[in-house]
């Protein structure tokens, strides 16, 4: 890392230092100026209530902010990297078609769980990190590394928002709004008193005035950002995917990684246990490398399965097998029994092979295949 890189890393902390300074000032303005100097002479019980609730919101806000900043980014596992011999083989080839085949062969040999591809149909390869990109993985120019399920690089936390800390980032937005809204609502009566020149402590009124304005501005602006990410969570998109859909064999598809409902998409980020949803404890599903895909993609979109194994049933996590079966059941609308017969054998008096497929209607759907053979002379 050169001098420029060091300078950029130092500058990257400026937004975090700014937010920290605002928090320290807001603490002084609320606790000292408002609660101690203004409220203590009016109502001690009200002052204690303000202080208790303020510190609850502040602790939760600082906790999620800390986790968002200091949680290490989710990096790509070693098996996706090219070894020195593989890299030499890849770089020795000049033709793009052969390069693509080399990457496909390597991914096939390593059995990498890859569904997405480039717009040209080839492997997603990072020429900087020298690796085959897993699904939803992107290279961050600020961190200079490929990140699993990268959402964006956020300057306010000086970190990449990705698979490992996306839940913390959403909670950070949520608790920022709660903190700022609480401060704005409780400060509003004293802001009005200061504005009408009836506040007992005019000097402290300037801090109260600015505290109300700053908290209101942050509350409104962060609310807009939270609504954006609620939409992303509801559809199981990252910020990058909302602008540029991932590409499958059938083409770009924003719904390719959706689990079919808001509840399922929400639980992929926040987990199944409700008691952890509002806590900055990692509960996201999966490993950041492989993701379930829509049921319609199971028989057509696995990038490598055409040469390795059957697509049906592959690429799904265990907890989503039921969702995949349900999607397959709902895609068959006309009947629950399907038959095929080899007509030529029957017409000629030979052997007719009759296959019947039964699909049960219950939640635990099963597919039963019966093959009947009739011999005629």
From TrEMBL:
<keyword id="KW-1133">Transmembrane helix</keyword>
<dbReference type="GO" id="GO:0019706">
    <property type="term" value="F:protein-cysteine S-palmitoyltransferase activity"/>
</dbReference>
<comment type="similarity">
    <text>Belongs to the DHHC palmitoyltransferase family.</text>
</comment>
<feature type="compositionally biased region" description="Polar residues">
    <location>
        <begin position="333"/>
        <end position="342"/>
    </location>
</feature>
<protein>
    <recommendedName>
        <fullName>Palmitoyltransferase</fullName>
        <ecNumber>2.3.1.225</ecNumber>
    </recommendedName>
</protein>
<feature type="transmembrane region" description="Helical">
    <location>
        <begin position="12"/>
        <end position="40"/>
    </location>
</feature>
<dbReference type="InterPro" id="IPR039859">
    <property type="entry name" value="PFA4/ZDH16/20/ERF2-like"/>
</dbReference>
<dbReference type="InterPro" id="IPR001594">
    <property type="entry name" value="Palmitoyltrfase_DHHC"/>
</dbReference>
<dbReference type="GO" id="GO:0016020">
    <property type="term" value="C:membrane"/>
</dbReference>
<keyword id="KW-0808">Transferase</keyword>
<dbReference type="Pfam" id="PF01529">
    <property type="entry name" value="DHHC"/>
</dbReference>
<feature type="transmembrane region" description="Helical">
    <location>
        <begin position="204"/>
        <end position="228"/>
    </location>
</feature>
<keyword id="KW-0472">Membrane</keyword>
<feature type="region of interest" description="Disordered">
    <location>
        <begin position="302"/>
        <end position="377"/>
    </location>
</feature>
<keyword id="KW-0012">Acyltransferase</keyword>
<feature type="domain" description="Palmitoyltransferase DHHC">
    <location>
        <begin position="123"/>
        <end position="243"/>
    </location>
</feature>
<feature type="transmembrane region" description="Helical">
    <location>
        <begin position="168"/>
        <end position="192"/>
    </location>
</feature>
<feature type="transmembrane region" description="Helical">
    <location>
        <begin position="46"/>
        <end position="66"/>
    </location>
</feature>
<keyword id="KW-0812">Transmembrane</keyword>
<feature type="compositionally biased region" description="Basic and acidic residues">
    <location>
        <begin position="318"/>
        <end position="332"/>
    </location>
</feature>
């Amino acid at each position: 890392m050169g001098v420029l890189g060091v300078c950029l890393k130092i500058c990257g902390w400026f937004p975090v230092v700014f937010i920290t300074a605002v928090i320290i000032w807001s603490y002084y303005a609320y606790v000292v100026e408002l609660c101690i100097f203004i409220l203590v002479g009016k109502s001690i019980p009200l002052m204690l209530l303000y202080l208790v609730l303020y510190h609850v919101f502040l602790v939760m806000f600082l906790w999620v902010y800390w986790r968002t900043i200091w949680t290490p980014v989710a990096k790509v596992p070693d098996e996706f990297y090219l070894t020195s011999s593989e890299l030499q083989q890849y770089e020795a080839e000049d033709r793009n078609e052969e390069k693509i085949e080399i990457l496909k062969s390597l991914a096939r040999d390593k059995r990498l769980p890859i569904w997405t591809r480039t717009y040209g149909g080839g492997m997603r390869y990072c020429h900087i990190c020298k690796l085959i990109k897993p699904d939803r993985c992107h290279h961050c120019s600020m961190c200079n590394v490929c990140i699993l399920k990268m959402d964006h690089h956020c300057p306010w936390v000086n970190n990449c928002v990705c698979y490992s800390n996306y839940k913390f980032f959403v909670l950070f937005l949520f608790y920022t709004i709660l903190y700022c809204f609480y401060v704005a609502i409780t400060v509003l009566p004293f802001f009005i008193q200061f504005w009408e020149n009836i506040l007992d402590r005019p000097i402290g009124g300037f801090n109260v005035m600015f505290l109300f304005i700053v908290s209101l501005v942050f509350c409104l602006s962060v609310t807009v950002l939270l609504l954006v990410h609620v939409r992303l969570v509801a559809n199981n998109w990252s910020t990058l995917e909302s602008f540029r859909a991932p590409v499958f064999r059938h083409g770009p598809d924003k719904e390719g990684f959706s689990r079919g409902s808001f509840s399922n998409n929400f639980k992929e980020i926040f987990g199944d246990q409700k008691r952890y949803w509002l806590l900055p404890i990692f509960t996201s599903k999966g490993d950041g490398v492989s993701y379930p895909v829509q049921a319609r993609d199971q028989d057509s979109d696995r990038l490598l399965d055409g040469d390795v194994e059957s697509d049906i049933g592959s690429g799904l996590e265990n907890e989503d097998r039921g969702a995949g079966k349900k999607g397959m059941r709902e895609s068959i609308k006309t009947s629950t029994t399907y038959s095929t017969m080899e007509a030529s054998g029957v017409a000629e008096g030979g052997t007719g092979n009759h296959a019947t497929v039964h699909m049960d209607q219950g939640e635990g759907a099963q597919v039963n295949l019966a093959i009947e053979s009739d011999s005629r002379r």
